[in-house]
Structures are given as C-alpha cells and as structure tokens.
Design a protein that fits this description.
Elements: H1 2-22, H2 29-36, E1 44-49, E2 56-61, E3 68-74, E4 100-104, E5 109-115, E6 120-127, E7 142-146, E8 152-156, E9 160-165, E10 173-177, E11 191-193, E12 199-201, E13 206-208, E14 211-215, E15 221-228, E16 231-240, E17 243-250, E18 258-264, E19 267-274, E20 281-286, E21 292-297, E22 302-306, E23 314-315, E24 329-334
Antiparallel strand pairs: 1-2, 1-24, 2-3, 4-5, 5-6, 7-8, 8-9, 9-10, 11-12, 13-14, 14-15, 15-16, 16-17, 17-18, 18-19, 20-21, 21-22, 22-23
C-alpha cells in the first residue's frame, strides 16, 4: 500500500508540473512582444502612414542607421495641410516622455495615451470645439503642441492660444491672443512656446535688420524668421541664447540652404552650413545635443550634417525603407 501511494503521489506531482510548464495558457502576442522587445522611445521621431491599417504609426528610429526601434500604432490620421511644415520638433506629436500623442483632425485636436502592453496609442478624447456665440462663425482647435515642461497641451483657434491638461482633458483655458506676424509666408508660425512653457506671440517681436525674433522669459532667442529679398529662412532650433539654426523655405536661388545665424550686438551674422540642395530640403530636425542636424529632401532622401561652419552633409538613415511621397512619412523631431 505504501509503495502504491508513493507512486501515485509522484505521478500526480509530475502531472501538475507538466501542466504548469507545458500546457498552461500561453502569453498573448502583445505581451510576448513587449517582453521580447522593450519599448525604446528615443531617437528620430517619424509619423508614417500604415498600409495595413490605413492610419498612422509613430516610429522611433535609430539616428545612426534609420532602423525602426519602436513602432506604435496611432488610431487616427492627421488631416492638417501645414501642421508639419513648421520647425520639426517631437512636441508637435508626442509629449516629453512620449507617453501621450496628439493629432489635428477634421473634428479638432485628438489626444492619445500609450498602451505599452499592446504597443499602441489609444484615443482618450477630443478637445471640445471653442465656444462661439450665435453670430460668430464656427471653428475648431488646431496646431496642437505639447509643452516642454508640465502636462499642458497647447493649440489655437486662429484668434487665441489655449491649453488643457492632456493627462485629464477638461475645458480649454485661454493663454494669449494671437498677433499676426505680418509675414506673407505660410511657414512662419503665429505663436511659439518658450523653454518654460510660456506662450510667445508677435506682440513682443524684436528686430535686428532682416531678422525678426521672439525671446523667452530668460531673454534667449526662442523663435526667429529671417527674410531678405527673394528668400525666407525658417527657424529650426536655438543652438544657444543668441545663435539659431535656420532653413530656407522660399527663394529660387536659396531654397534648400541650411544657415547658422548669430545675433552679435544687434547685428545678424550668417553662415551657410549646407549650400543649395537638389532636390530641395523639405524638413529639418536637430539632435538633442544641438551638434548635428538631420534633414529630409523633397524626394525622401536623408542627410545629416554638423552645425559648424564648413560642415559636410552625408547620407543618413540608410536602413530606413524608402517612401513614395513626403506625406507617407514625415520627419517630426528627435527624442
């Protein structure tokens, strides 16, 4: 009896062990993927159209190779025509920690939260349309951008800049009225954010010859436009308090030039970094350390260049699959 009891007990233990190790419920594909490849939310940030879903994906790519490190599904499609024509910054799409995303749609401004387990952004809500009286024309919020600090999402209705807490959407709060820049170029931003999240408008514009610029609360240049006969240069990023990187956006002779501009004693000093590009430069983003710049041409080619005078541009992101048009993959910034 003792021997039979011992044998039965051993067989039962083996059966339990076998069930626990071999025939239990397998992990879901999403959980297995998350365990196999932790989310890396750093690198070059791209918004690209997904052929599989017909919607958008947010891609974090290796800045050295262009290989996609993390691809996150985004259940929406940006319908604005000029939103990403402005300076390339990750804050136009994802929050400082990349845990939230935003898109401008036909309905207004959508906000998404990252579901790390399923490797996708999930819509948390849409910022309600601005309130209007019966006599005012209906409008919607547009041009969303995450603040560099805190948890504010900023946007405008064409008349004023507003914000909400993107972690818990509520009623938008008016931050500042919009003052037109006076420029006829569509690439010039109507408002910008300082390093501490302060809203900058053209009410406080400063001039130095052909340079028009806005300063943040510390007095450093935060946004700038340089216009000369036949050419307009757009702000890319500030390299230090008095030096900015700019890219030509209009002008038949200069279209496609990258330029370093330093404000010295009220005089703007210009140094070209990359001469006229064929095809033209379409989008530019600076690395977090501001030592390197990445740009995409109108034909979807990628190049990188140091931001020092005499720099040589070299092909970049060699492992990034080719895209047919700029609308299929847009450079957004550098996380």
């Amino acid at each position: 009896m003792t021997k039979k009891w011992w044998s039965a007990t051993l067989l039962g233990a083996v059966a339990v062990l076998t069930t626990a190790c071999g025939s239990g419920t397998p992990p879901t594909p999403a959980a297995a993927a998350a365990e196999a490849a932790p989310l890396d939310l750093s690198g070059v940030v791209l918004l690209q159209h997904s052929e599989q879903t017909g919607l958008d994906d947010v891609v974090f790519a290796d800045p050295a190779t262009g290989a996609a490190k993390t691809t996150l599904s985004l259940p929406g499609h940006d319908t604005s025509l000029t939103r990403f024509d402005g300076p390339a910054t990750e804050l136009d799409l994802v929050s400082p920690d990349s845990r939230f995303a935003t898109l401008e749609t036909d309905e207004g401004v959508d906000v998404f939260r990252l579901n790390a387990a399923d490797r996708r952004y999930e819509r948390t809500g849409t910022v309600p349309a601005p309130e209007r009286t019966m006599s005012e024309q209906a409008s919607r919020f547009r041009n969303p951008r995450f603040g560099p600090v805190g948890s504010k999402l900023y946007f405008d209705d064409g008349k004023a800049v507003y914000s909400v807490d993107y972690r818990q959407l509520g009623q938008p709060v008016e931050e500042a009225g919009i003052v037109p820049s006076g420029s006829s170029d569509q690439h010039v931003e109507d408002w910008w954010l300082g390093a501490r999240g302060e809203v900058l408008t053209w009410r406080d514009v400063r001039h130095a010859g052909d340079l028009a610029y806005l300063t943040d609360s510390s007095g450093a240049i935060a946004y700038a436009v340089y216009e000369e006969p036949g050419a307009t240069y757009q702000f890319v990023t500030a390299l230090d308090a008095k030096t900015v990187l700019m890219s030509a956006v209009t002008g038949s002779d200069e279209h496609g030039v990258l330029m370093r501009l330093t404000l010295d004693g009220g005089t703007a000093q210009l140094t070209k970094l990359v001469e006229k590009s064929e095809p033209r430069i379409a989008k530019v983003a600076a690395a977090p350390d501001r030592a390197t710049v990445l740009y995409e041409t109108a034909q979807g080619e990628w190049f990188t260049s140091p931001v020092t005078p005499g720099a040589v541009a070299r092909p970049a992101l060699g492992q990034l699959p080719a895209a047919g048009t700029l609308s299929e993959r847009q450079l957004v910034g550098w996380a």
